Amino acid sequence: MEIPCPLCETPASQPYHQDHLRAYNRCATCQLVFVPPRFFLSAADEKAHYGHHQNSPHDMGYRKFLSRTFDPLCAKLSLHSHGLDFGSGPGPTLSVMLEEAGHTVDLFDPFFAPDESVFDQRFDFISATEVIEHLHHPKAELDRLWSCLRPGGWLAVMTKRVLNHHAFTTWHYKNDPTHVCFYKEETFHWLAEKWRAEVEFHGKDVVLIKKP
């Protein structure tokens, strides 16, 4: 059975890897590696998995981890910018760091802050840290986020990137049962071309995309 790409909607993808847990396909157009929908967790199981996360703004180690996104994003923002922390999780922390820096941040998380009215607004920036690998419908979700950015705004993404097939076979990141989409650097270039946007890579797992 042909499985279309959930990001660019290319009709057929190719088998990429198989382990004892799941199968993974790869799109030849946008280079997304993804898990077919038959392997998705139920919403209840997914929420229970996230509930085990012990993230907190009081955890200095977690703040240091998020600084990989915070530092390059803050360097782009004007004073008193208004943003959205998408996928803020059970212990929002990047939003706290950004508010400490003088910005205003709204939250959205489908399980822990599910107020859809935030998408009626327009933002100077949107952050999605360790989020987009969880998206069951990445095209719809990312296009919605993009539409909520003001011209000149920044989408800041943190997610570990696929390097090559050999590295993927032993990659711990793919073993999280809630991780269903894996992006290559080429995937972000594809998105930037689609959106006619500028893209910047910061370190191994942070991407900033500027809306024209």
Short description, anyone?
This protein has 212 residues and is α/β, with parallel strands linked by helices. It has 6 helices and 10 strands, in the order E-E-E-H-H-E-H-E-E-H-E-H-E-H-E-E. The strands form 2 sheets. The protein has a 6-stranded mixed sheet, with helices on both faces. A 4-stranded antiparallel sheet has the order 1-2-3-8.
* CATH level-four homologous superfamily name of the domain at 81-212: Vaccinia Virus protein VP39
Shape: globular
Radius of gyration from the alpha-carbon trace, in angstroms: 17 Å
* Topology pattern, helix = H, strand = E: EEEHHEHEEHEHEHEE
CATH class (first level) name of the domain at 81-212: Alpha Beta
Count of individual beta strands: 10
| Amino-to-carboxy terminus distance | 39 Å
- The CATH level-2 architecture of the domain at 81-212 is identified as 3-Layer(aba) Sandwich
The unreliable regions are none
Question: Could you tell me the mean pLDDT?
Answer: 96
Global structural class: alpha/beta
* Strand percentage: 15-25%
Q: Give the helix tally.
A: 6
Helical content stands at 25-40%
The strand order across the widest sheet is 5-4-6-7-10-9
Major sheet, described briefly?
6 strands, mixed
CATH-defined fold name of the domain at 81-212: Rossmann fold
